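[step 3/7] inverse_fold.run input=structure_tokens len=550
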């Protein structure tokens, strides 16, 4: 966590000072992280220190290698995430020059989006020259979450099996595994949010600076990876304050003070761009979602809500958020309106077919995006909640408080029915199950809890294996296509639509000569599909060998 924190800080320093040390940020962050660790843990024996450093470096190395294998084939990733990273690495200074013109179709997203993950990717790309390795932050946070959750739960007195089970619950979030090989950031947001909640309760149990610092770094990451991270943080903190008032009143000043300081640091320093730059240049820190009279929001400018018009199943448009959530969590796995069907379809539990699981090839599955049996899990976990209400009065307050916090955080937008927009929805059924594992009431109750636990793990594994299978096959296929095109050494004609910068940089890296043509023109003759997006999505990249007239 310290390494990721320092990397973000040093990337910003390189921009502020207009220096050229971006290629050195990554190794410098590792070196200083090690030195800080040795200072903080100076009382540990040398063997423990060596093992800790070795494991940490191994995690970073494995993450770099694995992420380098996979291409980012997500739609938004190829549209603006990759473009932003290329521009940051090649000279754009978002601190000195926050407003700049890029590809005409994605300027707003690049300029006004949170840049935490982009800064990390730019430092990795600048150091190693491998663009795809910038996604290694996803795998690093995965490992961090595994170690932190397991070790913390063990400290709370649970057995190894129970600790592994709870750890598996969290990391099997389908949103995480749908995005882990991409530059999409919803999985990162979920990990930061989960780490924050974990560290808060660890600090409640045993106040120490290590928990405080890790929690603070998670807040910085959460707020600067996506704008909804700030919203979710504020809602969670609001409800946790009630817990402090009820059970930890002596810690109220420290709790509120620490959160206020970290919030200011996250926004004013680490989030200078976009929070401060949006305010100074556009009059509102949350522009373009919210604007001013002089600079209206994107919705006021266009008069349209693109998520409602283009991204929402037809029969969910205009419906109340709770109705949308019923469709999205109790429906047949699908990616309507971009798949075969345009509407979401509610089905009875356990009636989805294995063939439906192909919907998890998508990076942002809309209907049943949390897995084919998530609706069943919600119902079964609600039964556990009723049992807790009746038999476990001691833990009822904290269970209900967490559930209210998570549920309330999803009420701020009509679009939070979409799993990737509200990844913390995954935690809602886990609260009751985890507390049931911590505090079993009876033998039958315990059996029921473990049945739900097994279903949670199976449900998450379905998405993991379905999606990662597609990612693996697609990355192998794309690498083979690019290799063949390079070896043929013949120019191609290509249609890449919205994926301007990402495809152009990819072709340049693979030394493939190309000429762009329109979709209509390329479809007139024989052509091939370059592996780019999941079948069923628009903007599939098309190409053919260039016809050379003699």
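[step 3/7] decode complete -> sequence:
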């Amino acid at each position: 966590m310290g390494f990721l924190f320092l990397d973000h800080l040093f990337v910003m320093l390189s921009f502020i000072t207009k220096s050229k040390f971006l290629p050195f940020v990554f190794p410098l962050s590792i070196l200083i992280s090690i030195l800080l660790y040795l200072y903080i843990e100076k009382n540990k024996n040398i063997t423990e220190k060596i093992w800790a450093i070795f494991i940490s470096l191994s995690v970073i190395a494995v993450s770099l290698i694995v992420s380098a294998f996979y291409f980012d084939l997500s739609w938004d990733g190829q549209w603006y995430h990759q473009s932003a990273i290329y521009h940051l690495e090649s000279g754009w200074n978002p601190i000195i020059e926050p407003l700049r013109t890029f590809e005409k179709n994605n300027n707003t997203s690049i300029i006004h989006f949170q840049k935490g993950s982009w800064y990390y990717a730019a430092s990795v790309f600048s150091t190693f020259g491998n663009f795809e390795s910038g996604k290694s932050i996803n795998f690093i946070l995965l490992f961090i979450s595994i170690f932190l959750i397991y070790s913390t739960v063990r400290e709370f007195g649970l057995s190894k099996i129970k600790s592994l089970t709870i750890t598996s619950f969290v990391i099997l979030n389908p949103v995480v595994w749908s995005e882990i090989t991409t530059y999409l950031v919803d999985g990162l947001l979920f990990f930061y949010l989960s780490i924050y909640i974990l560290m808060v309760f660890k600090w409640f149990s045993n106040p120490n600076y290590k928990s405080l610092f890790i929690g603070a770094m998670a807040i910085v990451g959460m707020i600067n990876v996506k704008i909804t991270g700030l919203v979710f943080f504020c809602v969670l903190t609001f409800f946790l304050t009630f817990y402090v008032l009820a059970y930890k009143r002596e810690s109220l000043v420290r709790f509120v003070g620490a959160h206020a300081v970290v919030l200011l640091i996250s926004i004013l320093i680490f989030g200078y761009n976009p929070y401060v730059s949006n305010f100074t240049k556009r009059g509102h820190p949350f522009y373009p979602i919210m604007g001013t009279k002089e600079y209206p929001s994107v919705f006021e400018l266009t008069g349209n809500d693109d998520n409602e018009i283009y991204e929402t199943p037809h029969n969910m448009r205009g419906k109340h958020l709770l109705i949308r959530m019923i469709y999205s969590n109790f429906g047949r796995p699908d990616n309507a309106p971009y798949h075969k069907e345009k509407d979401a379809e509610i089905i009875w539990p356990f009636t989805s077919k294995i063939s439906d699981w192909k919907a998890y090839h998508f990076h942002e599955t809309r209907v049943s995006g949390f897995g084919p049996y998530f609706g069943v899990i919600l119902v079964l976990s609600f039964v556990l909640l009723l049992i807790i209400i009746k038999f476990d009065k001691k833990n009822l307050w904290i269970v209900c408080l967490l559930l209210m916090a998570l549920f309330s955080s999803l009420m701020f937008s009509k679009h939070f029915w979409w799993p990737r927009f509200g990844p913390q929805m995954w935690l809602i059924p886990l609260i009751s199950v985890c507390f049931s594992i911590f505090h079993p009431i009876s033998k039958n109750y315990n059996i029921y809890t473990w049945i739900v636990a097994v279903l949670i793990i199976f449900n998450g594994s379905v998405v993991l294996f379905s999606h990662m299978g597609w990612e693996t096959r697609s990355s192998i296929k794309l690498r083979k296509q690019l290799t063949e095109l390079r070896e043929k050494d013949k120019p191609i004609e290509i249609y890449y639509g919205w994926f301007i910068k990402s495809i152009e940089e990819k072709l340049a890296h693979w030394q493939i000569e190309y000429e762009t043509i329109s979709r209509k023109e390329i479809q007139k003759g024989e052509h091939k599909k370059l592996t780019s997006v999941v079948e069923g999505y628009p903007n599939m990249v098309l190409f053919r060998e260039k016809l050379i007239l003699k």
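[step 4/7] annotate
Residues 314-461 form one domain.
The longest helix spans residues 443-488.
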